[in-house]
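Example for reference:
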Amino acid sequence: MIPLFHDFDGETVLVFGGGPVGARKARRFAREARVVVVAPTFADREFGAAELVRAAPAPDEVAAWVDRFDPALVVAATDDEAVNEAAEAAARERCALVNRADEAGGRDRGSVVVPATVRDGPVTVAVSTGGASPALSKLLRERLESELADAGAMATLTADLRAELKDEGAPADERRTAVRAVVRDPRVWKALRTGESKARREADRVIRETRGESR
């Protein structure tokens, strides 16, 4: 299994199942996509901005629901294996991605595993055990949350620096060297905790030093 990031902006995610797992999946994808959750009942959980449709489709009715919403991803998260199988089959027939929330470990070709993620601004890190150990994924995510503090601010800062260096006409190799030096400098990371302006001053200092060494 190879990890990929998928842009769901403007897409629909169809979730079958209104239990805790369905709610968690809905919250995850509602950050970016239109999410529709189909279930006869809904757990007392937060579903984010998802649309909740109260219905209990039988296995032979699932395909019609998939046709109705034309999703990019179908999540099968019910406690009925037959319904989950029907959701998977309908998704595959329509070339949609599918996530079987009731399966762990080995998965069929084309299945999607939703990883544990850590976000800080534009930085996203995903951790997956291929469904073999969700508990380990959660532990690693918790550890990464502290390790990635200020990563989003660093990403924004270096994106601005790259753009400015490019506008100045700096060669590509010089831009790469300067930005790498900023990212690796502990003083810039420390300054990020105290404010954007101080971090920028430290970054400018690093770039001046780097350019001085290269000339």
